[in-house]
Amino acid sequence: MKAVRVHELGGPEVLKVEEIPDPKPGAGELLVRVHAAGVNPVDTYIRSGALGRTAVLPYTPGSDGAGVVDALGPDVKGVARGDRVYFSGTASAGYTGAYAERTICQVSQVHPLASSLSFAQGAAVGVPYATAHRALFGRAQVRTGETVLVHGGSGGVGIAAIQLARAHGITVVATAGTDQGLALARAQGAHLVFNHRSPSYIAEMFSSTGDRGFDVIIEMLANINLDKDLGLLAARGRVVVVGNRGRVEIDARQTMGRDASILGMMLGNTPPAEMLQIFSDLGAGLADGTLTPVVGREFSLDQAAAAHRAVMEPGALGKIVLVP
After folding, report:
1. What is the CA radius of gyration of the chain?
2. What is the model's pLDDT at position 56?
3. Is the pTM of this model over 0.85?
4. Which of 101, 113, 120, 266 is the most exposed place for a label (fewest CB within 10 A)?
C-alpha cells in the first residue's frame, strides 16, 4: 500500500510517499481502508520535533481519518466489515498512521460515520471537534446563557467551537482575517463576526457585549492575542489556550479585578472516561445534523508536504484533508 513516511525530523519536505506492506490487525483491532485523513497542526509539530518529544522513526503521520472497515482482528465486536467509520487515533502512531491507504485502529478509536457525511467530513471530526468540546465544556465549563468569543473562527477547531456552542444555547462571537473567513464563521452560527485585522476590532468586540466582556474566550494563537484577551473578559471570565506558537508577555493584573482564569488545554491530557463522553456527544450531534464539519481543501498523499504548509498558514477556511 501507499503511505506517507517520515525517516528524519524536519520541514515538510521530509514527508515521502512509499510502498509498504499492508498492516494486519491484531486482537481487538481492525483494518480501515482510508478514504480521507485529517491534517492537524499537531502533525506538523511532531514532524518537526517542535513538541519536545522524539518520534520513533520511521513513522506514518496522522491520527484522524475516515473510511471503510476492511478486516477484523480476533475478539472484535460491535463493528463489521464494510462499515463506514471515522477514527481518532490509530493503533500505532509509528507504522500505521492515518496518512496511508490503510491503517490499523483499536475498536475504541473508531466511530460510526453518519450516511449524511462524506469521508472527508469524517476526517475533519477527531482532533478539531474533540478539542473544541473539551475546551468549551471540560476546561471552561461554559454554561447556557454565557457569551463565548472564538478567536479564530474559520479554521477546523473554530468552526467546531461555533457549532457546539450554538447547539448549547450559547451566544457566539467569532473572529477571522478575511471576508471569506467572516462569512464562513457567520454561516456556521456565529451571532457576530469581527475582522481581527481591523485596527478597531478589540474595541468593537468589547462594545458588542455592552461593555460587559466575554465569559469565555477560545484562543487559537495565544502568543499574539492572550494579553488582549484578558482585557476582553467579563467578571470570572476564562480564556482557554488551545493554540500557541511562541512566548507572550501579559499584564497579569488584568486577571485580578475580574477573578479571571487562564486555562491551558491539550487533547492528549483528556482522561479516557472523558474522551468516551466527548465522542458520545459528538456522535449524537453528527447524527442529527447539529454538527456538520466543513472541509476547506483536499490534497493527495503525494501533496502531503503542501498540506503541512497550508495547515500552518493564516486565513484557514475549514479543515484540510488528504485523500489517498
Report:
1. 20
2. 86
3. yes
4. 266
